[in-house]
Amino acid sequence: MISFKRGRRKTIADFKSLDIYKHYKQRCKDKNMIPVKYSQFARILQTFNTNRINLTIMENIEFHMPYRTGSIRIKKKEVRVKLDDNGDVDKRNLSINWKKTKEHWIKKYPNKTSEEIKLISNKKLIYELNEHTEGFRYVYYWDKITCNIKNQSAYIFNTTRTNKEKLTIALKTIKNLNYYE
Q1: Burial class, 92, CB count within 10 angstroms (exposed 0-12 / middle 13-18 / buried 19+)
Q2: Dihedrals φ, ψ of 138, to 5°?
């Protein structure tokens, strides 16, 4: 089987769980408290994040972040197919279905390796029309209306691939999920 590898990550986290733990340890030291070990801290953090994302996906409950930094929710967006000046479909607003696209390329170019296929220009791409969700796209959304951070437009919220996959699986398997537009 031909394998297509993922590219490099687009964003690299500025702060990781170890940085949060160091801050927590310093706060415990300042208040003369005994901090938990990092392994236990990491389990607590993982459990909290898992439960929080499950509530957001399954129950459609917004996560209001502390210190007036806004809230995280899932937003429902209609995918509108538009035509350009030539009468062709404007593909800028459509997402590429990479799984079906790669399967198509393997079928169309059976004697080529993944590296040779990558070198071919103007290959056909298969776009996602979101028929399983009746033409809607669902995304994690950082609502900044109540946010009081300076220069907030410079900040972005990217969820992990695992959490995006959880949302996708839930949308495909659970029928009664309903989110706000």
Answers
A1: exposed
A2: -115, 130
Alpha-carbon dihedral angle through residues 108, 111, 113, 114, given to the nearest 10 degrees: 10
Q: Are residues 18 and 37 in the same domain?
A: yes
| Residue 95, H or E segment | strand 95-96
- 138 and 167 in a single domain? The answer is yes
Residue 5 and residue 159: Cα distance in Å, rounded?
Answer: 21
Residues 130 and 138: their CA atoms lie apart, in Å, by 10
Q: What domain range includes position 160?
A: 64-79+133-181
Predicted local confidence at residue 42, as pLDDT:
95
pTM above 0.90, yes or no: no
Whether residues 178 and 139 fall in one domain:
yes
Could you read off the pLDDT of 81-139 as tens digits, one per residue? 888 888 888 888 788 888 888 889 889 888 888 888 888 888 888 888 887 788 888 99
| pLDDT for res 1 | 56
Residue with tokens 């004697």: 111
Same structural domain for residues 72 and 161? Answer: yes
